[in-house]
Amino acid sequence: MYPCGNCRAAAVGPDGRCAACGTYQQQLQQPPPPQPQPHVPPQQGPPPGSPYAYPAAPPLGMPTGGVDLRRGLSTTLVVLFSVMLPALIFVLVARGDQYGVIGDILDGNLSGERLRELKDADDVYTTAVVISFFILVALAVVWAVWFRRLRLNAEVFAPGQHRFGSGWAAGSWFTPVVNLWFPKQIANDIWRASSPQGPHNVRRGLLNGWWVTWIVAGAANFIGTIRYNTLRSKMEAADYHPSYVEAKSDIEDLQSILALDMFATVVLIAAAILALLLVRQITAMQEQRASLPPQPGGAAPYGAPAAPYATPAAPYGAPPPYGPPGPAGPAGPADQPYPPYGHG
């Protein structure tokens, strides 16, 4: 017997449920004894009024130990985001100081004191960037591991309904170009599979808001970096001997670059806040999804014989039928299975 993946208790019953918390976590190691099954005539539906419960994660193909609901990675991410937010605010304040000093210089207040203030502002900004960089590296590593675990859990909830393998869940974040849309598609599939209300009742406002702010912040920062490097290369060239008008124009360009960088930092702060909320939300969704009971009439447990003439279970999230089904007729839109996760 494997320990419970939810509370780690060792008391797991023969049906795969934890005796302590009741969570359906384990793949059965021994086939249960055959149980007498009631005979259901063909084309006869369930009794009127019988509820269609949410199905448990299909045991076939389930990773050893079931879904992984340990909170270590999600808690670490919450802590790292909580530390990252003050670091980003520090970066924003330091950038604002640089912007203010350059504004004074453009107003004609160019003196030795202003140049010293500009150097001090540059040093403070460099310190803020170094601090935020190390926090960002730690965040990136933990986030990739955590995101892959979400993908593995989602495969248990909805096997074969995902567009990318679990390797892409971690690797897509570090692959140029495809990291602009692969992670979002993987997140959409995870979100649908983890929804306790079923794939059709999914509200993705938080997920979409986080992704939009992340992309906007990255794009603004990318443009600002290119503009800054171009201007720096021009000003550090050996043949750079600008006139007063040209030097003033270059300083104005530098100030606009700092303004764009401040905008990118503000959006990045918003993305970090939404990411923190996203970690808490998806963790709670997967815990709820894993704790729901199996669907009556669904697939037989691993190793158990299937019930003869059993009525197939409806997909999770589908409404219960109202009374026994009528005579079989041409398949209409309502008779088709729910669309695969590859849409949207």
Please characterize this protein's 3D structure:
The C terminus is likely disordered. It contains six helices and no strands. The two termini are 39 Å apart. The radius of gyration is 28 Å and the shape is elongated. Helix 2 runs parallel beside helix 6 and helix 5 packs antiparallel against helix 6. The protein is mainly alpha-helical and 344 residues long.
Considering the chains and any ligands shown, give keywords for the structure.
single chain, 344 residues, mainly alpha, elongated, disordered C terminus
Summarize the structure.
With 344 residues, the chain is mainly alpha-helical. Helix content is 52%, strand content 0%.
Task: Give the helix/strand layout.
Elements: H1 72-106, H2 112-157, H3 166-171, H4 182-194, H5 205-235, H6 244-291
Helix pairs in contact: 1-2, 1-6, 2-4, 2-6, 5-6
SSE succession = HHHHHH
Question: Which residues form runs of ≥5 with pLDDT under 50?
Answer: 26-31, 48-65, 294-344
- How widely separated are the two ends? 39 Å
How would you state the average pLDDT, rounded? 76
- Please indicate the percent range of residues in DSSP E strands (runs of 2 or more): under 5%
Shape: elongated
Query: Structural class, from helix and strand content?
Result: mainly alpha
| Main sheet properties | none
Radius of gyration: 28 Å
Helices, by number, come to 6
Number of β-strand runs: 0
How much helix is in the residues? 40-55%
